[in-house]
Design brief:
330 residues; two-stranded antiparallel ribbon; globular; mainly alpha
Length: 330
Amino acid sequence: MSALAMWGGFIALVLLILALDLGVFNRKPHAPTIRQAMGFAAGTALLALLFAVFVYEAYSNHWGGLGLAADAVDHHMNTGRLATVKFLTGYVIEMSLSMDNVFVIALVFEHIRVPLAQQHRVLFWGVLGALVMRGAMIAGGAALVARYHWALYAMGAFLVFTAVRMLMQKDSEEAPEESWLVRFLNRNFRVTKDFHGGRFRITRDGKNWITPLFVALALIESTDLIFAVDSIPAIFAITTDAFLVFTSNVFAILCLRSLYFGLAHLLTKFRYLKTSLALILGLVGAKMLAAEWTDALLGDAVNFWMLGTVAVVLTTGAAASVLADRRSQQ
């Protein structure tokens, strides 16, 4: 199996999942119930676990040349076992760091008043845009690290800086309608005041107009780009293998966008989410800066420790949030 077939097969799988999502399960515009959202999210999580089995076989047998080059992070060849652990660790880290994006999506939909029946359509096209953007960023990042190893230390320092900034930053959210992107769209395009079903643009009096649905999509894409700047360097602390980085990113995006309808309101009670994410970013950044020391101390088990530590941070943050919420109610 060639490398082109590996990449093409995976992209075809993703397109098939999206086609089933919009063309079969959500063919008619409607607001997915929590049960439907959780069901689809569970399905994508199961696919991720099944794909981990494929990763094990692919790297064990070097399909498409996978696992034949040393990983710039630990300087080891990615065996089937090691590649599988890195894939799952990257998947969990990307899921964790992308949770904050759910709040932003909810904020955009609330301020622009996107109808519930059309929110899934925006998220669907948002996934496609995110895949293209992240794919380009991962390709560029992998090429940079492969050529300049010091780039890993620069990314680690950036993540530590971002973690400190998150901990010190006060909660001051800019309303979506005040965003520079919204101002740019209003200045340079004709924007309708009303929604027109699931359409992103319409023709009126022979002139092209964009709808508020397109504005919401543009905002979500721009915020995803901002979040990717933090999350993609984080996974380079685990591996620089472009196939592992991209596939773990894609499965995390698919799962989290499905979880939106089930988590958007629940996560508002997770008051220590920001602190948890900052700790994870700081942990990953520190691991990148001390990569040689951690690899010498823990060896191949470093990714198991990373996976377990991320799980502990998230669980502790969730438990502390629940206890704090109960004290507030009492």
